[in-house]
Design a protein that fits this description.
There is one protein chain. This protein is of the alpha+beta class. The chain has a domain at 16-86: 2-Layer Sandwich (Double Stranded RNA Binding Domain). The protein contains three helices and four strands. The protein has a four-stranded antiparallel beta sheet. The chain is flat. The two termini are 18 Å apart.
Length: 105
């Protein structure tokens, strides 16, 4: 079992805390025609939170809270993919994954 820094109460003063969540388009689609899950990284900033997806370069969002950044990222992904479809650009398949690694501090 991998122990995350948050569970141990470790502090990494030089690192910015990150969280990940998966955004499943099937959850948001009224037609259910999409079934892609994109990894989204959420980072704490000096003024709130920012989010991006490694699978969707240029697709980013911000928010005052983590929840707001995640909600804004869902909207950004929808808008980003809509624009790609309208321009006839192939929608990238999700390929990123994440993990926590325990290292001695």
């Amino acid at each position: 079992m991998v122990t995350t820094p948050q569970k141990q109460g470790w502090r990494f003063p030089t690192l910015v805390p990150r969280t990940e969540f998966w955004y499943n388009l099937a959850d948001e689609s009224e037609t259910g025609r999409f079934a892609m899950r994109y990894l989204v990284i959420v980072e704490r900033t000096e003024t709130g939170f920012s989010a991006f997806s490694p699978d969707l370069p240029g697709c980013v969002a911000t928010g005052a809270t983590r929840e707001e950044a995640e909600q804004n990222m869902k909207e950004a992904i929808r808008f980003h993919l809509e624009g790609m479809q309208q321009e006839g650009v192939e929608i990238p398949k999700p390929h990123s994954c994440s993990t926590y690694l325990e290292v001695p501090a």
